[in-house]
Amino acid sequence: MRSERPSIAVVGGGFGGVGTAVMLKREGYEDVTVFEKGERVGGVWQHNTYPGAACDIPSHLYEYSFAPNRWSRRFSPGPEIQAYIEGVARRFGVLDRIRTGTEVKSAAWDEQRNKWLLETTSGSHEADVLVTACGQLSVPKVPPLAGLDDFEGPAFHTAEWRHDVDLAGKRVAVIGTGCSAIQVVPAIQPEVARVDVYQRSPGWTLAKGDFAYSPVLRSLFRRLPALRRLDRASVYAFQELAAAAFTRHRWLLPLFRVFGMRQIKAAISDPELRRKVTPTYEFGCKRIMLTDDWYPTLTKPNVDLVAEGIGAITPAGIRDASGAERATEVIVLATGFASHDFVAPMEISGRDGRRLEEEWKEMARAYLGLSVPGFPNLFLLYGPNTNGGSGSVVNTLECGIGHVLAALREMERARARRIEVRPEAAQDFDRELRAALAKTVWHSGCSNWYVDENGNDPSNWPWTWSAYRRRTRELTPGAYALGEPETANLAQALG
Ligand code: NAP
Question: What is the mean pLDDT of residues 371-382?
């Protein structure tokens, strides 16, 4: 029997960790500690400070539902989002629950005491419940490009931007043409002498339609909250349409493709450049990139799109696969993130010493992306298969936090000290998920960051975001087992 409320440790102080701290506080949980390895909260928005960084989901959806903001633009720039996250942490009074500058190295489940034991860079910590909010895109991926170590100038990843390197008047190479690159290149093009963009395979785009909110519109949004809610609902509806098109209703994709083609044709008249930027795979297979200035930038006289592939990096430049070498003073690696390890490099060991890394050797899997059999009282926010080609990650995180709250409620109702997803529930879910994923556009034959080199997809959610909300809101009867410490077989089933 237990009377006091559980203590909760949260790993990560980005949108997920700050949102968890606030939502737990609103439910009256007092013993909550968030660990953030950076010096400030903000997660990806603290790290991705490259020129042009901005969200690519309209801000009225890319915000907490409980903290509407007065954004300056339709798609707000990175520093404004960073300030928003910090402002939410301050305004909702959770800053004192966040330990910045502290990295969690490992977490081990103590079976006897029903506790998670955390080893951090500033000592040990115990908690009843562990929530990870590490994000999927936090570990920069640097490809093994021949000669990169011998390059004489600065070479850095977009997520580790070197603000001490002045790009003005320099010859710069940007490697990659994903969501980060299409923001960086237009932002730096006006100031650099040249920018060579190394494209391995092009991506489909749609017009972003970004604009600054006029004072009148800002005042209308402030005075008429219903207008902001309507805007949010319309953005959500469009994102749901895209989710349906990527998954069960792929017949819709050719319609989107028409707009993608139109954008290319409107901006680029050179047939050779058009050919280079036009993907040959199905619309939506890689993440759709929203942009208004990518193609116009590629037509500028100081920009060259190199699609021949990279042969090698030399000390003073890059040699493409055709043997041509271009002199380069700075290399920007817009090459994405190691997204398939989720909580790594943190080590998590559960019941009977099981290591999460081992459990996930073939591929990371989790029930609703949140729970793993053998790891009691552990919840993974934005965990395996909760990403999508559409939708707002903030919404996904809020759904996950809602699930954690539902689990905590059940534990309190049952006076249980532990909750663990049943293996059968996790297996049934995984079967259903894999069958649905196979039919999605992400598995239609392009390379994308969702699917690994063996064809496994630990990344994406194959249904709509309304379905995710519905499925995570409450615990499905029988999906979890609740137990007291002495209950060896966790026999007290839910429901
Ligand atoms: P990404 O989409 O994974 O793109 C990486 C790029 O690097 C791709 O063009 C890839 O080519 C290229 N690349 C990788 N290895 C290479 C190599 N060895 N040689 C040449 N090119 C190589 O990464 P990202 O642009 O950082 O975006 C990742 C995700 O972050 C996005 O999908 C999005 O979810 C998120 N994001 C969001 C925003 C936002 O506005 N909110 C902004 C940036 C990123 P291939 O395509 O051929 O693999």
Answer: 98
